[in-house]
Design goal:
By secondary structure, chain A is α+β, with helices and mostly antiparallel strands. Helix content of chain A is 56%, strand content 16%. The chains are: A alpha+beta, B alpha+beta.
Chain lengths: 434, 307
Amino acid sequence: MVKKGRIVTFFIIVIALASLIAFTIKDITSDIKLGLDLQGGFEVLYDVEPAQEGQEINKELLNSTVSALYERINVLGVSEPSVTIEGNDRIRVQLAGVKDQNQARDILSTQAELSFRTTDDKKQMDGTDLKEGASKVVFEKNQPVVQVTLKHPEEFANITRKIKDMPFPENRLVIWLDYEKGDSYKEELKKPEGERKFISDPQVTQVLSQNQVIITGPPFKVEEAQNLADLLNAGSLPVKLKEIYSTSVGAQFGEQALDKTVVAGYIGIGLIFLFMMLYYRFPGVIAVITLSVYIYLILLVFDWMNAVLTLPGIAALVLGVGMAVDANIITYERIKEEIRTGKSMLSAFKAGSRRSFATILDANITTVIAGGVLFIYGTSAVKGFAVMLITSILVSFITAVWGSRLLLGLWVKSRALNKKPGYFGVKESEIDEL
Amino acid sequence: MNFNTRDIDFDFVKHRKKFFMFSLILFVLGAIVLGVFGLNLGIDFSSGTRVDVQAGQSLTVEEVNNEFEELGLDPEEVTLAGDNNEIGVARFIGVLSKDEIAEVKSYFNEKYGSEPNISTVSPQVGKELAKNAFIAVVIASIGIIIYVAIRFEWLQGLAAIVALFHDAFLIIAVFSILQLEVNITFIAAVLTIVGYSINDTIVTFDRIRENMKFEKKVKTFEDIARIVNASLVQTLARSINTVLTVIFAAAALMIFGGEAIRTFSIALLIGLVAGTYSSLFIASQLWAVWKGKQLEKKRFKPAENEG
């Protein structure tokens, strides 16, 4: 006698899962963040060097550099920036989907230390004397200029008084961005206009006591002026950054890689599904159901973790399907073996499930160990791969072991499969007489 | 398309010396090739700059060289990639400066309407990457040996690790023969194979562990050999089917996955074949030999073992 209730339960579960997947998959896939290799963007590894002599590179300094970098990235409007400290003196910046890579790179590594100096390069004021967040672009005679606001206008009055009294041509206030030791105003003057390192050198003819100062620049373009204002608002970096590794992916390259890998993924997974159904027959169909749920869950978990999907990550996902299939294969082979010894369908199913569990557990744990080490020691791309691999194994354990057992169990316990070893790909002739 | 594994009459253990010999020859050949040709290291592991230009039309090496000349740059080597040679890959020995990168990007973006990929690596970072990957494999191996020693026995852990290095080495040797570029995704592939190889070997060892429990007395090498053989035959269908499914996935990635993932999938394919071979023909047989020696010692020195 066949217990129809269990078969009905099976179909209810399958239909519920199918509709859940159909209704939510679009939102989930569109929510997943893509790495820079899949949408274009760049990654730079900086060596952090002291900006001043005797400055010690420590955790605190690195942390403040990281927050300064985040401030600057905000200016760029990148949605998922990642800035991480590596080792004792390195910072890795990953910007996916940034529109103008050249501009982004400039904005990131400029130290942005503004200084006001005399013509003999003595510092009078610097960026710390500026009111934070108050720099902006204004237009003077249709020309974009940068307006900054001072904290102490009286100090500025003193400086301008001093410079005003200097003889021509020394009565100039030289404005520098990232003045480096050894730079000299007089040397720069010898260079043709446009190649000079300082921003501008206005002549001072009267005492200026207002709190707003205009930097006219060597005529700025609008975006140059905007960049400078943004940089001044974001604050200067406390250190110097030297690029030691960089990789950038053009947006078109990224999109193409995504499209092709997704197509390849579909084909690979399709082949696996086909093989499972042809070889394992009825349990193979169950495997296809649980594998679909597995892929859905992986994407869901990935979305929840706010993780970034990279190219190696997709590879790990496809490989994870292989691992999940393995768990199914181990179980089904075991059940087939038990059927061949002449056991009833129910006891073959029970024995096969129980015996395969330890095997799957041990095999998966060893792979998780390998994945864990990869995560700890790997750099960005390898790390993404490791995260995906570990997630895959954990999720595959749930779907391939528990899910398959539940769904197949409903059928076996319904007795509908009794005396039908062909459904498992076992021939009657292979079964031992008891 | 079905086979009953109980009908398979093949002695996996008897022919072990041939398998060991085969692997040894492969190993020596691989070492020679590696010594003579070395690896085609991508800039990830050496240093320099790599620029990938996508033109949207077929390119020639000369064209790409000319383009760079326009920019005042002199690539060390230019190769073509992509299905229709529409991608030009230029390698430079030095690290291009930030300004040069900006110039290259805008030049090609204007010319072909596609922003090039540019990577730069300083020598120091390249060395670290290779070193870290090696350390990662060693640490993973130690972790695996410890786990296997607890759940199984340490001799099996050792045999699994030998199989693992066997597979990793074969991938490296094939990459040396074909002079395929070794980049960071290659490391990811080797590490995947490390995980897969372990997984595969463990499943066989698990069956050996189970079959050992059913045996009343395991005293001689012959006993061990019989158990190992039975276990390998019993798990054969699983070993082959699993590797087949993963090969489907890896082959699809290789054929349809595009340039960026090709190295990865080729390395994966080689590793899968090597991994299956080592699980079927090397790991268990090695363990059988070692275990046999251990048993022999026990038989001749019973007092020592009891004390």
